[in-house]
Amino acid sequence: MKSGFTLKLIATLSICLFTIFAKAQDASVEKSTYGIQIGILGIWAHREVKLTNQLALREEIGMDAGFWGGSFYSQNGYLMTPVITLEPRWYYNLNKRIAKSRNISGNSGNFLSLKTSYHPNWFVISNYDNIQIADQISIIPTWSLKRNIGNHFTYETGIGIGYRYIFAKSVGYLENQSETAVNLHLRLGYRF
User: Fold this and answer.
1) What is the pLDDT of residues 29-75, one digit of tens each?
2) Measured between alpha carbons, how far is 76 from 58 in angstroms, rounded to an integer?
3) Which range has the worst mean pLDDT, 23-32, 63-72, 161-170?
4) pLDDT value at residue 72
5) Which of 55, 134, 185, 190 has its CA 20 to 30 A from that of 18?
6) What angle do CA 99, 29, 191 make, to 5 degrees?
7) Is the per-residue pLDDT at 18 higher than 90?
8) Is-contact 66 79, C-beta < 8 A?
9) Range scoring the smallest mean pLDDT among 12-16, 67-71, 117-121, 147-151
10) 139-154 burial: b if 16+ Cβ within 10 Å, else e
């Protein structure tokens, strides 16, 4: 009778300890994840690579879009131009999401990032002929969140204010320019 009670006690303690250790482990971003995203102003392919349990480096290449219009133009215009982005991301609430039994697969969580983008003057797709953009680089601290919809689909939204430097001399202007830049995005994606 004592051995039966001892086995039950050991089994109960083992389950309790396993539960405690399972909860005590730090949540972590995925080792590597790939995907594509679309938004109102573009399409992008990306890869995120784990640096630490809460830090990931996102590498992205895509096409950013823009629209313009007004009385100076004969028709409204649009353009699409290439963009290359490196973005370290700090997923700061993964442990909190795990504690609330929420999904963190595919790096689903809130994050702070330093979005660094380069727009090269390689080519422009537009409804106007002979459109060029000046090479430009932007660095924008951003607060964002990413969530899963099922196993493969995601959505991501964020906001940030930062700095943009435009190499305007490269397209014929007298001086280069710098300005405040805003990152406001809403993207739908597919994760491979």
Assistant:
1) 999 999 999 998 999 999 999 999 999 999 999 999 998 887 777 78
2) 34
3) 23-32
4) 75
5) 55
6) 110
7) no
8) yes
9) 12-16
10) ebebebebebeeeeeb
* Cβ–Cβ under 8 Å, residues 188 and 37: yes
Nearest to 147 by CA among 103, 91, 93: 103
Q: What is the DSSP string of 21-88?
A: HHHHSPP---SEEEEEEEETTEEEEEEEEESSSSEEEEEEEEEEEEEE-STTSSS-EEEEEEEEEEEE
Long-range contacts of 165-172 (CB under 8 A, 24+ apart): 165/136, 165/137, 165/138, 166/134, 166/135, 166/136, 167/134, 167/135, 167/136, 168/134, 169/134, 170/121, 170/134, 170/135, 171/121, 171/132, 171/133, 171/134
Q: What domains appear along the chain, each with residue ranges and CATH number?
A: 28-191 (2.40.160)
For the chain, give the longest Cα–Cα distance.
Answer: 94
For the entire predicted model, the pTM comes to 0.81
**CA dihedral (87, 93, 98, 103) positive or negative:** negative
Residue 7 CA to residue 110 CA, distance in Å, equals: 44
What sign does the dihedral 121-179-39-110 (CA atoms) show? positive
Token pair of 54, please? 């809460």
